């Protein structure tokens, strides 16, 4: 499975109502650190397959979801399980660190 683009309109359906844990990446095209972690998130999405969903929310196009989550800086990552936030982190990190954080949270 690859990452899923999520909008303000699809946030609840794709994230809060998902039957698998969801990693949400709040990002923007102009954000350097966001671009750094993008390939790692794509790889993790492929590796985890159907066990988790990795969703990407472009904060420029979808400001309501970011505001609702209290996102003040990007990249901002949240893990949802059963519709609730179970963990979050900000800033870029290497793939191994992201994978470790995901494993601890799900």
List the helices and strands and how they pair.
Elements: E1 4-5, H1 11-16, E2 22-27, H2 32-48, E3 53-58, H3 63-68, E4 76-81, E5 84-90, H4 95-105
Parallel strand pairs: 1-3, 2-3
Antiparallel strand pairs: 2-4, 4-5
Helical segment count = 4
Rg estimate, integer Å: 12 Å
Strand arrangement within the widest β-sheet reads 1-3-2-4-5
N-to-C terminal Cα separation, in Å? 18 Å
Write up this protein.
This protein has 106 residues and is of the alpha/beta class. Helices cover 38% and strands 25% of the residues. It has four helices and five strands; from the N terminus they run βαβαβαββα. The protein has a five-stranded mixed β-sheet. Helix 2 links the parallel strand 2 and strand 3. The chain is globular and about 30 Å long. It starts with a strand and ends with a helix. The model has no long low-confidence stretch (mean pLDDT 97).
Keywords:
single chain; 106 residues; alpha/beta; five-stranded mixed β-sheet; 4 helices; 5 strands; 38% helix; globular
